[in-house]
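check this one:
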Amino acid sequence: MGRRANTLAAAGVCFALASAMTVQAVPVAASAQAAPPTAAGAPGTSAVPPVSPTPQSLTRAGRDAAVTGRVLVVAGEDTDAAARSRLVEELKAHGADRVDVVGPGKVPAAAAGLLTVRLGGATRPDVAAGLGDTAVPDHAEGYALRVSADPQGPRITLGGKDAAGQFYAVQTLRQLFVHADPDGWSVPGVEISDFPSMPLRGTIEGFYGQPWTHAERLDQMDFYGDVKANTYVYAPKDDPYHRGKWREPYPADKLAELGELVRRATANHVRFTFAVSPGESICYSDPADREALKAKLRALYDLGTRAFSIPLDDISYTRWNCEGDRAAFGAPGREAAARAQVDLLNDVQRTFVATHEGTRPLQMVPTEYGDLTDTAYKRTMRDTLDPAVVVMWTGTDVVPPRITNAEAGQVSELFGRKVFVWDNYPVNDFGNTSGRLLLAPYDKREAGLSAHLSGIVANPMNQPYASKVAVFGTADFTWNDAAYDARANWPRAMAYLAGGDREATDALLVFGDLEHLAPTFGATPWQPQAPELAARVERFWTAWDAGDRAGALKDLRPYATAVEGAPATIRAGAVEKGFTADAGPWLDATELWGRAMVRMLDALAARQSGDAETAARLLAESDDLQRRARAVRVDPPRNTWGSVQPKVGDGVLDSFLVQAGVRLQLWDTAGGGENLALKGTASASSVEQNLDRLAPRYVNDGLMGTRWASGYSDDEWVQIELAAPARVAAVTLAWESACAKQYTVQTSPDGVAWTTVSTQRPETCGNDVVRLPAAEAVRYVRMQGVERRTTWGYSIHELAVYGAPAS
């Protein structure tokens, strides 16, 4: 596949958006701002565009180098072929009509005045001379880059510590091209000394559900090259030959695909790491199983693979797969499991890895991969596992809300070595991510982790192109964690997907805000939902309730229009087609939600001007658009969720529409539209296993990360006793995956006599909005279960009650 020439290399002009990003003259919040380009210096110098990953050192070094119509590239036998090829490609994409490649010492006299680019090892005499006093890092994958212009002509020198360093120098140069005039290009005069802070950087395709296609994986290898990620671990859970059929060789056609993937990875200086996961069925003490495992590795070695992993996660250590292991290692348990695993891993490291030329140290995932507790398992690993073996760790939870230096230091002590983090973000293969794209920036990993870790690989989503947003940040963080800024990285990631197009980048930022929530396995999401929209909605209601209704509408409407228009802009052509395919159902739903928001604001404006009839019509249109948005489905699904509703700004956008609709219904009623449940008291018929973390009080705490869950029968209920009698216009229920197939909403003035005001039969688990007549004052509102959808009970994140106090 061909590369897109208009990636960040063409985005020099785009990064005016770094400090002036707007949506119909409404500035995007600071959370979406990129760091501004380095300011221009003396005459003949231009502003330096941002570079991702952020270099360790970048300073001005003189006048800009203009790209001439003819360019000379000086490359020797030491020059990395992939770096040279990419350099020529980028020069031709940025103004060079002709690029001649010559050897060192063979630059023709006629070259005076032409742009000359030297590429090779940093110690090559002409490269060293061109770099001058620019420091060359004494660090694997490091490089130095110098751009200048002198009487002999413009000069660019790229010197690598090794072949990868040369390649990464070109990847940096790719981002430095700027428009010199309407028809020309130049490169700012800079000197850069750069190297990665972490040795291992990239992704692990380790999710459950539909694996990526071969074409998608090939594209990923090119992407990793662009962002200087050097590791890809092939470990898809649902590849049968990775896990269930690990003893069996790959069929010829699959092996051919893997061979092509290895070659594409190598061309991008990515270590294709083959993982095989035998833990579900291996007999550790059986020589035949060990030979089958090594044969599987050998087949990939023969394809060019030089990095291997044996994940032993998500398996039991309370049972053996064969009686031979009981005899060899004793009764099953933590220590016995560790001894068996160590015996296997040491054998593979010493008799396969160490005996096959060029092979990197073996990687493994321990069965205890997500905590900081010292156990017999970890002590055995620490004391007996070969020091060369690399141990992976996921953080303090399966999906960690943060990773700190203290935690990383502690786990390194527990395993007796620097650990390699398998970071389960932006993976969306677990229940809490149902219906979600995870487009928030990579964040909440502490600067300084490079001192404690051997590296980080992100576990991406089933949607490969959408995963690039977070992986772009992972690559930036692992390259230079000390300088990483999630707020600056996020718009750069979006600009990469948009090919540098400003309008498309802005649209992606609006869309990404609606897909910002990042769940964990715990109660609280580690990234909030729609922070930009939430801030704007909060300002809206503050102004509205203070009496400045016209100002509130004027402030919010342009952003609502931007939400409505973002999908069409994203689909207009500038954004990677793979992303628009991945995000298709979410884009469909976003357009409908955006239109519903615009109609709702129009309805509020009409009612404010005294036109109740028009307001009612527009409210009905908004309600219909909301209904259609809820009817959109991710179908066919790539994830194990099944056909579900794509979640878009949930808890923020839908809540705003409900609240605005209630305000219209209860126009000018004091307190109309308030979520009365927040000041109420929750109670329930039961709590699952009497667990306090699932108690009724969590159903009205205002937090989408907490929930109430019932016992396992159909007739369970949860209710809110309001602080005072109220006219209730709407009830919303944010269901967890254990939802109702049928339920009723009941109200009561006294908690004794109940009236069924609505019967609901939702198609799927999601966010339900139940409209009520608001005719009489009530004190209690109840969800009464009729039939469960699962064998579990009922589970609700939030039960909100909208209306106005009767007084």
